[in-house]
Amino acid sequence: VTYSLPVFLADIIQYGATYVDRFALAFFTQLSDVGIYNIALMAGTSISFIIVPINSILLPKFSEFFSRSGKREVKQSVRVSVNLITFLYTPVAMGIAALAPTVMFILGGESYLPGYFPLQIIVVASALFISQNVLVQGLSGTRHTKVLVVASALPLISNFVLSIILIPMFAMVGAALAVVSTDIMSFVGLCVVSL
After folding, report:
1. Distance between CA atoms of residues 116 and 106, nearest Å
2. Angle, CA 134 vertex, CA 133 and CA 136 arms, to 5°
3. How far apart are CA 100 and CA 69, in angstroms?
């Protein structure tokens, strides 16, 4: 319970952080914008199928390495895992960014084309900060779970603040910038708190 409860709490906070921009977009704009943005967001986050299986393997492995030899083996494994995920994820994300107008047209037709720029923002930012997924698993596996709670609060706050500021001015683009702030703040929070 000592280690699992903070991981549970951090997951709830991180999950909630991903919905703030949609609620704010629904409040500040038309519902059609929310529909277009949701399709762009789903297309952008659908490539997480690349990292979810890897993350499912990493947490128990990091725990095993930590119990066997401490942080040394975990640090080496985190480095290799970051390289692997970056190598697999980045080309797919950049491909989707390059084909964003076509992707949005295929998914929703011509009326969904305004979602291509938010889609590009989402996939490029996720590729730049993809390593935060491995860092979360590394901290969970080494029982630094209280750090996760602190690091998961930062994305929630940034998404909320940026949604309130950017969505009234930039609509879907503001929502995309707010949602990518969750990856950025998670990465920054994990790096700063874990030093």
Report:
1. 11
2. 70
3. 45
- Say what the pLDDT of residue 194 is: 59
Average pLDDT score over the chain:
86
**What DSSP assignment string belongs to 62-119?**
HHHHHHHHTHHHHHHHHHHHHHHHHHHHHHHHHHHHHTHHHHHHHHH-GGGGGGHHHH
Q: How many residues does the chain have?
A: 195
Counting Cα atoms < 13 Å in the Cβ hemisphere of 156 gives: 15
Q: Identity (one letter) of the amino acid at 185?
A: M
Count CB atoms within 10 A of the CB of residue 46. Answer: 13
The one-letter amino acid at 99: L
pTM here is: 0.85
Number of H helices, E strands in the chain: 10, 0
The two three-digit tokens of residue 195, written as one number: 């030093």
Confidence of residue 195 (pLDDT cuts 50, 70, 90): low
Region label for 180, one of left (φ > 0), alpha (ψ between -120 and 50) or beta (otherwise): alpha
Round to whole Å and give the CA distance between 144 and 23.
32
Q: If you compute the radius of gyration of the chain from its CA atoms, what whole number of angstroms results? A: 17
